[in-house]
Design brief:
Mean pLDDT of chain B: 85
Number of helices of chain B: 35
Number of strands of chain B: 23
Low-confidence stretches of chain B: 498-542, 844-849
Strand content of chain A: 15-25%
Order of helices and strands of chain A: EHEHEHEEHEEHHEHHEHHHH
Largest interface: A-B, 22 and 19 residues
Largest sheet of chain A: 9 strands, mixed
Strand order of the largest sheet of chain B: 18-19-17-16-20-21-23-22
Oligomer: heterodimer
Radius of gyration of chain B: 30 Å
Radius of gyration of chain A: 19 Å
Mean pLDDT of chain A: 89
Shape of chain B: globular
Amino acid sequence: MNGRATGPRVVLGLPAYNRPDTLGRTLESLLSQTYRDFALVIVDDRPSAETAAIAGAYAREDGRVRYEANDTRLGMVDNWRRAFARATEMYPGAEYFAWVSDHDLWHARWLEELVAVLDAHPDVALAYVRNMRMMPGDGRMTDKAFDTSGMRDRAARLRHSARYMLSGDMIYGLMRVGALKGAGVFRRVTTPDRQVLLALSLFGQVRQLPYVLWYREVLRVFDVGRQREVFFPNGAPLYVYLPAHVQHFATLLWDFAFRGSGRPAFGRLAGLRFALSQLWWSCVRDLERPKSDWRMTIGRLRVWRQPRPQQVR
Amino acid sequence: MTSRAVRILFFMRSNIYARNFESTLRLMAERGHSVHVVAETHEHLDPTDLLGRLCREYPGITHGRPPAPDSPRWIQLGLELRKGLDYLRYFGPEYRHAPKLRMRAELKLPVFASSAAWRRLVRTPAGRGMLERLLRAADRALPPDSAITAFIREKRPDLVVVTPLVEPGSPQSAYLRSARSLGIPTALCVFSWDNLTNKGLIHDPLDLLTVWNEPMKHEAVTLHGVPADRVVVTGAVAYDHWFTWTPREDRAAFCARVGLDPGQPYLLYLCSSRFIARDEVPFVSRWVDAIRSRSDLLRRTGVLVRPHPQNAGRWRDADLSALRNVVVWPREGANPADGDSRAEYFDSMYHSAGVVGVNTSAQIESAIIGRAVHTWLAPEFRDTQDGTLHFKHLREVSGGVLHLASDLEQHVEHLEAAVREPDGSRRSRAFVEAFVRPYGIDTPAAPRLVEALETAAGRPSRRDRGAWWAPLARPVLTRALRPVENALRAVDEQTRGRKHTRGRQKSADTSGRARTADATATTPVGGRDRGTTVHDAGPDVPAIPPDAFAQYLEVRERVRGFRAADLPADALTEAERRIRDELGALWDATPAMVAALRRYGAAITGVSASDYNGAGGHDLRERLTRDLRRLLAKGDKALWIDEPDVCGGFGFNGLAQLYNEDTLRFFRVISLLQDAELLTDFRRSGGRRTVWEIGAGWGGFAHHFTALCPDVTYLMTASSDSALLSGAYLKALHPGARFRFYDPARPAEFWQNWHLADFAFAPEEVVAGMPLPGLDLVVDLGALVRMKGERARVHVQKAHDLGCRYLFSHGGVPIRWILDRFYWRHPVSEPAYVAKRLAVRTGDSTSEPAPYFLGWRRLHV
C-alpha cells in the first residue's frame, strides 16, 4: 500500500512475535499518545488467530494502525528490518521512525516529547527517554545516562558511543528516517542494535530526555546463544560466532570505507578511520566494563566469580 | 420651619461620618443654629480634618468626644442583645438570596450565640420568634446610662441626632435612650443608601428619620418598622456638592497627568469596597483582556482604575504593566473629602467615556455627573451584586442607572457602543431625579434635611420612663451580666492570642515545604487534647488563622445550598453514615471549633490528634519518623509539604516541620504521581488543568497538591458535610484563592469560566451529568471504597467518559474490578514497585499489600 504525500510525520514499526497477552495494552498505550500525527505498522512474525484478532480490531477502528503478517518466519533481525521497510514504504513522507515492541508501555507524552526534541534540534538524529524496567515481581527506574548532544565531531561521537552507549534503551528511541537509512537500519549481526546505533552516531547526535516515559518489560537476561537462535531461526551464519565488535567493524568498513555510504557527509577514508576507531574503543570498553562479554564468558567457565549479567530483552 | 435658633447634639460614630453631612452642617450654622458634633476622631480616616475645618470656619459648630458611660456592663449587655436581634433579621425572606450578608451578620454574633439553647432556638421560625421577643424585652429593660444622660442634659439640646446608628449591636442606641429619658426629640439621618438593608436594625423609637428617597423610605417602614409619618425624604445630602462642580483641568491635561494617552478615550473603572469585592485585581485584569480583544477601538481605549479608598492595599503592588494604556490612579487610594481630592475624582469621571464598577456609591456619583454607568453580573460577585438589597436600587429605580449586561461579552458590546457614542446622560438623569434629587434635579437636599431637623427640634417629645416592668426584670438581667462578661473576656484573650500567632500562621500557607535538616528531636505539636472526639477544641487549640471563622461562615452558606442534594441515609453505606454523624456538629460550629477544624479530618481518615500523645504517641512517633526518613531518602524532598500548623494542625516535628500519618500518605501519593511523570504535566506551563477529587476528604490532599501544582482547578464532589469541612479548611489556608460552590438554582454557572476557579465544590448528585471542559486527573483517597458498588462505578465511568487519562485510587480490593474495567494499571502502582519504593510501616499499607491503584485510561471498555 502506498502512503500519501501528506502522510504522518512519524511512523512506528512494531515487529510482533506471539504476545497476544500484552499486545492490546501496548497498542492502547501507543494510540493514547498526545502526539497524534503518527502511523503504526505491525509486522507479525508469528501470526496467530488471537494476535490477528487483537491487531485487526485496532486497525479497523483506528486508521493509523496497519497490520501485516509474514508468510514465513523471518527471525527477529529480519522482522525488524521488515518493520522499518514496510513502514517507510507505506509512509514515504514520514520524517521520524521508531521501533516499538509488542509488550512494553509508553507514557502518553512519550512521542510528543521526542518529536519536540527532534523538531527543535536538527543536529540530533535520535532522541530517547529514561525507562522503568518491569520485571517479574519487581520494578525499577533506570538511572543510566547517555547523551551526545552538543558533540559536533563525528569521531568524538563515535568514540563516546562505542564506550558508553546504552544500546538496548536507545534502539527504541525516535530516529530521523534519513539518518537511519544512512546508518544501514539493522544488519544481520549479533547485537545489531549496537551496530546500527554506532553507525547512526556518525549521522547525528543522541539526546536523552530525563523523563521516565517508557515502561520496558524485561523477562530474561542477555544470552548470546539465544540471540543467535532468535535472530536467525533458519540457522546462524558462521560469522556471527566472531566477536560482535569484529562483526560491527566489518559492516562499518564495508558500508563506509568500501561502498562510501557515508557520502556526502563523510568520505571513504573517514569511513575507514571510523570503523577502526569503533573497533578500538569497543575493545577498550570491554576491557574496562565489569559486565563485558569476555568477563561473562570467563565467569561461566568459573575461573572468576561471575558478575551479574546484563539484562536485556 | 422654625424661626428660632436650635441646639443640636449630633452623635457621629467617628469624624469620617462628617463627610456626608458637610453641606448640612454648613447650612445649619449659616442659619444660626448651633451644632455640637460628638465623634471619635481618627486622623487616618480623615487626614483632611473636615470637622476641624468646619469648627474653625463656623463658631456655631463645635466638636467633642463622646462621654464615657457610667455603667459599661449594661452598655455591653445591650450591645450583645441587639447583636442578636440584628442577626435574626437576616432570616427574613428578603435575605433568602443574600448569603454574604447573612455571613457578615454571623460574624457579629452575640457571645451567647455559642450556647446550645441559642443554637436550638435559631433553627426554627418559632424559636427565632421566641428569641426575638426575649431579646427585645431584655433590651427594653436596660436602664439608660447615667453618665450619658448627664452629658446630654448638660448640653441642653433641642434635638439629638445620630448617624449611622445601624452598626451591629447599635452602640449609638445608648444616646437615643438617654435623650428619650430626658424628653428630648431624637433623629436618625441615614448615612448612605445601603444602610437600611445591609446592616443592623433601628432598635429605638425615633421622632425623625431622614432618608434620601422614596425607595429608602419604603425600606425604613417595612424592614425597620418606623412609622411612615416619622420618615422624611430629603434627597441625598452627601452628593449635593457634585451638582456644582466643574472640571479643574481639560481632558488632555488630565490624561497627561495621570499617564493615559490623551489622544484616546478612556474608561473609568471604579473599585468597590472590600466587602463587595475583596480582590478586584484579577477581575480587572480579565476585564481589560476582554475589552482589548473585542475591537480595535477598545484596544486603543485607555483604562483608568480608581481603587476604593478602603481597599487600596490590593492595588499597591498590582502589576498591570503588561496592559497597554492602563493606569491605576491614585494607587494609594484617596478619600474625596476635600477640594483637591474631589476635584481629581470629579475630573476622572467627567473626562471618561464611561464608568464601570461592581456595586459602589461611585456609580451614583458618576450618574450625577452624567456619565453612563456600566456593569455586568459577574459570577464572582454574585453575592455582592444581586445578593445585596441595595444593588436593586441601581437596577430598578426609574429603570435603573446601570447599563447592565448578563455576561462579559454583552458588557463589552455595551462599552464599545459607549466609547463610540458617549451618551449615558438620559438614563443617568432619570435615576438621579428619583434617587438623589427627588424634589427636582435643581433642588439640593441639605435645606430639606435642615428643615426637617428644625421641625423635629421644635416638636415636643414625651419623656420615656421605660417599661413598667423593667425594674423587676433588671435583677434577672444582672445575673446574665457575669456570663456575658466572662465570654467577652475569653474572646478578648483569644483575639490577643490570635495576634500573637499571626506571624507564624502567615508562613503556613506559603512555606509549607519540609525542612529536611538532620534534626532528630521530635516533639508533638498541637496534639494536646486528651479527648477521643474533637467537638470542642478548648483553650489549648493553637493558631486560628485570621478571619477563619468568617471564612467558615461563608463556606457554610455556600455549601448549605447543596445540602438538599445529599443522598438519603439509606443510600449511604455504614462508613458514610458514621462520617456524616461525626461531621454534623460542624454546621453549628463555634469559633473554637473552627480553630480545631483540621481535627475533624479524623472522621474521614481515622488519623486523630489524640494518638499523638502519651505512650502511644511515643511509639507512633518512632514509627512515623522512621517511615518519613525512608520516604525522604528514596523520594524527592521537594515534593514534601508540611502539615499546616493552623486550624488545629497536629503531628510531630523534627525531620520535617510538622508531619503525621496523613502527611506521609499524601507524600506517598504525590511521589507515585511523580514517578508516573504526571506532576510534570501539571507543573509546566501550557494551560490550566483540572483535578477531580472524589469525596473531598478534609482538604489536606487538595492543599498538598495545589501547593505543588498551583495552576489547576481542583474540583471536589462530596456530601455537604465533607464539602463544609474541606471547604472551610482550604479557605482558612488559602483565603485569597477563588472558591466556587455548586448552586442548584444556577447549575450552569458552576461550570462557566471554569479555569477561573481554584477550588470548586459540587454534590455527588451532579457527577453523572457534569459537563467538565476537560479533566486531567482523578484522585480518590478512599471515598470510592466507602460507596456502594454502583455509585463507585458511576464515578469511575464518568472519569473515563470525560476522557481523563489518569485515575488514582486508594480504594483497595473491593473496587478493583471497577477500576480494572475502565483503567489499565500503571506500572508504578504495581504492588512490587510500591512495596519497594513507598512502603511504610505506619498506617494503611500494612493492612493491604496493594492499596494504591494508578490507572491509565483504557480505549476499549
